[in-house]
Amino acid sequence: MSSGFHIVVCGSLVPDPLQTLEPVQGPAGPALKNEMVLPAVLDPWAGHSLYEAANLAKNTEGSKVWLVSLGPKAKLQQLMMTIAQKVGFELVVLDGPAGGFTDSAEVAGALAGAIEKIDGLDKSKLLLFGGCSSASRDAGATMQMIGEHLGITDQFLGVDELTVQADGSLKILERIEGGQYQISSCKGAPAVLAWATGSLPEPPNNPQVGMANMRTIMPALQKAQPAKVGAEGVSFEKVEVPVQQRQTKIVRDIPVEEIAEEIVAWLKG
Fold first, then answer.
1. Which of 103, 132, 128, 107 is nearest to 45 (CA)?
2. What is the model's pTM?
3. How far are the Cα atoms of 65, 133, 185 from residue 154, in angstroms, in the given order?
């Protein structure tokens, strides 16, 4: 395909999963303890989609990648110090909360509005990338709603592979139940692709890519527009870390059927 794609990746930051996360009740509702000082990383699912987008743009002449992020501006600036060295993109920033207590409908509306305002974006070439899930709230519905806001009805979820055919159509592998794939196809852009893990590793740091990205990242951070997102009208009755439970039993020479029956009985309580 000679005209290329305009690939917009929706992705933001989440607390480093190696940190201990403790929910607390803040003045504006539930939050994480010391959230603003917790180390942050790019949401893993969004990261996979960003790497896939960069690879597609690299192999499709005339393509361009934008990363649209909604999060606290100061923390996004820290995050970009590492992400900017991985792949090339143009950053679009919305300054707002990125925790797990925001409403996915409000987040989708804000992101769609920001995408509509991207200068030079051709929606007829648009491939909207993002994670099929999130390490924050895991609503699993944000990408679909962004697509609806933008009028994109070809939507694919749990994507692990995208192939651009010789005629410009798209062949997509989506994860379904039972460890199997569903193979789909569409004529081409515009389309929404919410990625699972894809197949690409995290690219190594490239200082030259980082320097090129930083020319546009700092101005984008300075121009970040505030986004009013949250969970207005929603109340959380209780927030707590899941209780860890571990029960170990060592047995020998028991038939498989008997083990299965015991597990089923345990699951039924």
1. 132
2. 0.84
3. 20, 18, 10
